Amino acid sequence: MFELFAQSAFSGVLAGAYYALIALGLALVFGTMRVINLAHGELVLLAAYVAYSAENKLHLDPLASLPLAVAVVGLTSIAVYGLLSRIKKDRELNSLILTFGLGVIMTNAILMIWSADIHSTSVPWHHDAIILADLLFAMNSEVFFGVAGLVVVAGLWWWLEKTWYGRALRAVASNRDAAKLMGINPQFTEILSFAVAGLLASVAGIAIYSAKVIQPSLGHHLTVKAFIITVLAGMGSVPGVLLGGMLLGIVENLTVTLASSALQELAGMVLFLVVLLVMPSGLFGRVRRRG
User: Fold this and answer.
1) Alpha helices, DSSP H, located in 85-185
2) Residue-wise pLDDT tens digits, 175-195
3) Cα radius of gyration (the chain)
4) Fewest CB within 10 A of the end CB: N or C in the chain?
């Protein structure tokens, strides 16, 4: 029983690492523009299908397709910003409607271009098994992207804390008008946040294609997971996104192991509602002052 529990928790930690990659892009855009990009999951899925096409047509390893995925998804993400920036009134509500519609359009475009077939990488290395301590089992791609998720989260946290552009992004997220007085261009900062979100979506999409299977309807589920993790973490907490992703991954995998795979999504929603009820600011968010 212990071995089964340990394996399930280990798989949940690995899954949570690339869950965090998905959620970071959503959290970054929300922090900068105070809008929730409901098309973010479709951007992740687009990167996965770019990796599939690069492997199928150009015979590239999914890892080698990262520059191409970054170019395609980054430009698409900036195009989404271009549409969002035209909203002048009731940005929070209208942005939800707009990005939801863009997500539907992207899902159908993916369906038309790549059909409804299920795809996964055919490169043997990604599916080969790795054994740790004669107890824990995983695929090479799961371990690789689990470690990559940790590295990317740490790199993003360092960038936000230590670089000028990272501090500018945080300043715009904290107080847009005050950032203008300090000589920061909010529009450029918002474009930068969407570009970085596209980069994160590209890495996450290739991770999903390498370790899981993809299909056109997956984008919506990825957006929901990203939103759950963002709320679990608390708005503005990069380490919290990583821990929130791992918590969601562990809960989902334990539910599959100890109960049923049919309850996997329900377990995540229950966790989301419990945390939202008990800690409205999230597990790692800051409670806003009043008065």
Assistant:
1) 91-114, 124-127, 140-162, 164-174, 176-181
2) 888 888 888 888 888 899 899
3) 19
4) C
